[in-house]
Amino acid sequence: MKLLVTGGAGYVGSVVAARLLEEGHEVTVLDDLSTGHADAVPDGAAFVRGSITEAGEVLSAGFDAVLHFAAKSLVGESVDKPGLYWAHNLGGTLALLDAMRQAGVGRIVFSSTAATYGEPERTPIVETDPTRPGNPYGASKLAVDTTLTAFAGLYGLAAVSLRYFNVAGAYGAFRERHAVETHLIPNVLKVALGERESVSVFGADYPTPDGTCIRDYIHVADLAQAHLLALAACTERRHRIYNLGSGSGFSVKEVVDVCREVTGHEIPAVVAPRRAGDPAVLVASSEKIQRELGWKAARTTLHEIVADAWTGWQTPESGRGL
After folding, report:
1. What is the pLDDT of residues 148-182, one digit of tens each?
2. CB burial of residue 117 (10 Å; 0-12, 13-18, 19+)
3. What does the DSSP 8-state code read for residue 31?
4. Taking burial as the number of CB atoms within 10 A of a residue's CB, which of 17, 54, 145, 221 is the most buried?
5. Which residue out of 11, 85, 117, 137 is catalytically annotated?
């Protein structure tokens, strides 16, 4: 198939683009490089530097489907600049969907987020649980999911949304490389690399086995495989939504301990006050996508996820990834 990957110069988008190429697809990456990197675009993919609001010019060349990763994704920034997130995440996606309609492209896989659920009533979270996002980032992504449902009914769009929490690990030379790093595993590994003095543990008195928050982690390669399966599952006039998760999760303390083991570094950890709005446990159930699409994470141990991330973080700064 001929496929457009928006945000394909970013961490997840670049890995998915690489996997699509490995499967024999023709791939074009559209990215404005506001957070991505040109050297993250996989060899063999065409690259167009531009915004998703300019997707019409690209799609006019004829495409079979779109995989949509382009988004603003910093929770704190979304609280400070909500208009930016609504304009980019929802407004940009509306422009993309309009361009798809005009070009006759009827399939889309959307990289959504489990932040659409907000603070859950129960865990693991399932797709039928209430969606009450606690910040503009999650709200804007939920609005896109709502729009995809409407477009499926109104215009026959075939859409799949994938909701997940924390992505980690590396796929070969493709790794995380954020200008503003908010993810736990990269920040812990930065201590081992000598780029930080210590890692902060926000709260050690939660009602969990070791007192620290528990979060879901998924290996980026497993996430990419889910996107490939979702692409094949796109069905006209239907919008499917799937959670991706481990079903159990790992605590902050477990992450730090495994990072120490993998890197061989002490990695000082400093307990800090709880952050407002941090739930004790955030874990998603992937039972639905396992049942319907046959997806199951292949890299489920925290050691494997961290080891791959550590290998990626030791590559030169010009290496693949966001």
Report:
1. 999 999 999 999 999 998 999 999 878 777 566 67
2. buried
3. E
4. 17
5. 137
Q: What is the dihedral of CA 299, 300, 301, 302, to 10 degrees?
A: 100
Q: Where are the beta strands (DSSP E) in 207-268?
A: 214-215, 217-219, 238-244, 250-251
Residue 48 is predicted with a pLDDT of 98
242 forms beta bridges with 162
Helix axes 220-233, 11-22, angle to 10 degrees: 60
Return the ∠ at Cα 230 (arms to 224 and 235), rounded to 5°.
165
Per the annotation, the verdict on 164 as an active-site residue is no
pLDDT digits (tens, 9 = 90+) for 258-316: 999 999 999 999 999 998 778 889 899 999 999 999 999 999 899 999 999 999 877 65
DSSP-derived secondary structure for 85-126: HIIIIIIHHHHHHHHHHHHT--EEEEE--GGGGBS-SSSSB-
Task: Taking residues 4-24, report their average pLDDT.
Answer: 97
Contacts of 71 (CB under 8 A, 6+ apart): 7, 88, 89, 111, 141
**Inter-residue contact 126 to 287 (CB < 8 Å):** yes
Name the pTM for this structure: 0.94
- DSSP state, 246? -
Picking from 22, 25, 4, 36, the residue whose alpha carbon sits closest to that of residue 177 is: 36
What mean pLDDT is predicted for residues 111-123? 91
